[in-house]
Every structure is written in C-alpha cells, then in structure tokens.
Amino acid sequence: MDYILSGLIQALELLFQGDPETFSAVKTTVLASSLSVAASMAIGTPVGFWLGYVPFPGRRPARVVVDTLLSLPTVVIGLLCYAFMTHRGPLGDWGLLFTLPGMAVGQTILGLPIVIAMTATAVESLDQRLKQTLITLGADRRQILLTSLWEARFSLALAGAAAYGRIVSEVGISMMIGGNIKWHTRTITTAIALETGKGQFATGIALGLILMTVALLVNLAMTGLKRMSGT
Amino acid sequence: MTRRGICAFMGAMVLLMACALSASAEDALMMATTTSTDNTGLLDVLAPKFQEDTGIELKWTAVGTGKALEMGKNCDVDVLLVHAPAAEKAYVAAGYGKDRTEVMYNDFVIIGPPDDPAGVKGLPVVEAMKKMANEKAHFTSRGDNSGTNKKEISLWKKAGMEVPDKEAWYVQTGQGMIATIHVATEKGAYTMTDRGTFIKFEDTHGGNPPLAILAEGDPVLFNQYSALAVNPERCPNARYELARTFTEWITSKDIQAFIGDFKLLGKTLFTPNAK
Prior knowledge:
The complex is a heterodimer.
Chain A: H1 2-16, H2 20-53, H3 59-69, H4 74-85, H5 100-124, H6 128-136, H7 141-151, H8 153-168, H9 172-178, H10 188-197, H11 201-228
Chain B: H1 3-24, E1 28-33, H2 35-39, H3 42-54, E2 57-62, H4 65-73, E3 79-82, H5 85-93, E4 97-112, H6 125-135, E5 139-141, H7 147-158, E6 170-172, H8 177-187, E7 190-194, H9 195-204, E8 212-215, E9 222-230, H10 240-250, H11 253-260, E10 263-264, E11 267-268, E12 271-272
Parallel strand pairs in B: 1-2, 1-3, 5-6, 5-7
Antiparallel strand pairs in B: 3-9, 4-7, 4-8, 4-9, 4-12, 10-11
C-alpha cells in the first residue's frame, strides 16, 4: 500500500524539483503524440468524411475493416513497423528505427482507425438538409467537404481527444520502435515499464501520475479551443 | 479557431517535425545490451563518462541477449554488450559480429525463499536443480532466450533432464530479471539470477530482501559479459570505428577500475576481467 502514497510524494518531487530525466520523458511523450495525432487527423478526417459521405460499392465492408482495426494491438503495430524499419527491411534506409519520427509513424497507424471511424460516424449523423442546401447553393466539392467538417467540428475534436488518449498511453510501439533509449526515445510509458522492471514501483506510480497530469493539461487546452471556436 | 488558427497549428507541427528529425540525425553509438547492465544502473554511470572521455554519445536499448543478437543481425545497432559466450562465438563464426572482447563477469546464483522448502541450500548447483525438480518446488524462469535463460536451460540439461516446460511448478515469465525475481517473491518460488541484479534487488529492499541466495559458487555458474562489434562487411551502416572506440575504452585500465568500483550495499556487481 505504501507504494501508492510514496508514489504520490515522489511525483510531486519529480515535477517540482525539475528532474531532467522525467522532463525528457515528458517532452518525448508530448512531441511524439502531438506529431502522431496531427498526422492521424490530417489523413483520417478526409478519409473518414469520404467513408461517411460518399456512397460507393464496398462501403459497408470498408466500415467493418476500419472498425476492426480499432482493436489493432500496439505490439502488432510495433512488430510490423519494426519489420519495415529495420535496416534489413524495405524502409531500412530511412533510418526511422530508434527515432522519435519512427515512433510517431507507428502511433499514427494506431490513431488513424479511431479518427476515421469517428469522423465517418459524425458525418453520417449530420443533418441531411445540410448536404441538400450546400448543393442548392452551388457549393463545389471542396466547399462541401470543409463545411461538413466544420459542422462536425465538435465530434472531430472528440475524435482527436480519443486518438490522443490511446496514443499517449500506449507502450508497445514506443518500446519496439523507440527502444526506450534514455534522453531520446524514452516516453513516460516506457519509463514506467522500465521502473517496474527495476522493481521501483513508487517511481512507476509517480510517472503514471505525471502522465495523467499531462493528459489533463491537453484536455484543458482542447476545452479552451472549443470555447474559442464558439458553441 | 479560424483558418488562421489552423494554419498556425499546422506550422507549429511542421516545426516540431523538423526539431524531431534534426535531433535524430546526430552521430551516436547505438548499443543493444542485456537487462542486467541496465537494471543495475551501471550504464547510467558509464554512458556520461564515455561521452566525457571520447565525445561520443552512447545510446542503448536494454533487451535480452537473444534479442540483442538479433538486432545486430538486422544491422539495427553498432555494438553489443551481452553475456552468452557460446551464442556469441557462434555469432562471430557466422560472420554477424567481430572483435568479441571480454569485459567483466559476475556469477549466477540460485535464490529462493529463506526457509528453503526444497532443501537445496549449499548443494552444488546441478544437485540443487535435480532436487527442485524432484520436490516439484516452484521455479520461475525468464523464458525469454536471454543470457540468463540460456544458462538456466543448460543447467537443466546438465542435471540430466529436459527443460520442465510443461510442469505446473515451472513458470516462465517472459520478462526481465528483476520482474522475474518479483514473480518468484510473490509465489514463494526459486529462480536463477546474476549476482549483480540480485544485489540491486537487495538494495531496493533496503538490504533485507524477501529471497535469499541458496546455491552458488559453482564454476558452471560463471557469467562472462563481452562486447561485440556488428560486422561492417555485412552491415555497411554500422559505425564500426565508434564500436572499436567503445571496446577500447571499456577495456582500458581506468574504466575497468571504474566498473570494479561500481558498488551497491558495499558489494561489487561486476568484476572487470578484460585482457
């Protein structure tokens, strides 16, 4: 039991005394997850829109595939990415293994199905009159895309938050692609795995609390953005 | 959140990406090593010293010896610091690595509950293995093809039996050494560990660990750590010169003495033995 209490005390110490190792892990976590959430959103929203808006043959099976990919385990993504990124793999020359961009690529694969599925659902549930009005007003394709996404912006923000939550808390991809390298690719979650492996449970709990603090700050920032965009 | 806001956000992301890429481009030595050198904290003190002495940054990823060798085969790392002499020699013979250099050693010990339900205390290690199997005493194994796991498997064979893979009393954790010791603690089981990691475990428990050393001191329990460079003829991207610098550095007189002075609870974790 005393692990939990000493973990709490240690978390405060690590944060307020500015422990450089902890801050390096926080920085890596925030950097990698921001990159991958941005990439997931940039790729995922147009695909999700297309999937939810345009009727095409094979749309239903495509939805099933995306929904299934929601349960893609992180270790499998990590393993597949490793197979591609290792120096003997097809993308070996890109030197992505053991780097932060490499981790972000893997995490983008993790975030994409979430963004696509939630965007598609959001676009499907938009008022059908919106589409008709836009067409009547002579909107072109790009305008229809942007206006529909704008109308669905709160659902998209939710999709981003969900993807962020999944990405920031994953450990499999960071461990396999990043390699848990001190000062470089050690994230908060891989640091927790390491501290647990070392038997330093209190430090592990402290890092867990720090991760939750980071997540809280991100969500507060999202709420701020939502307020700025007007309800 | 207007269009300008979105543009600013995208700009920030591009900047972030550029930062991340430039940070990864710098030159450094990439090492794959075992959990024992990392979990004990040895590398945390060696890496800054290496950078100070040579100006080269040491990056390491801590995995079992089996996976470390595999990473070398795939040309993902430049140098290895591992402890499975037989596998290392085969590795060099197959052309995957070169310049195998012995660095330091410690020894393996059998640990278990202090009240020793199977009665193996003080026995030669092969006898202890036989007795644990006969008594069906709970035993936790790494089960991850690490150097420690390879040694444990060889000991079951020396005791004249197959690895008790399917026995109910034999548990494979698939995790690192300290995690495996913790499983053994929870189950009141026996396990085998290198002495360095056990001292670290003792230190974490304030010198009063829940498991005790029961069998030790047999020549077969000798645990040699060696450095290997990844063969640059197979892996043109491997930084062979840096790997050589590392090997020369870690076998130098000063660093050997430094390793010998790395102590917890006043006990030496690794004894230097470079020739």
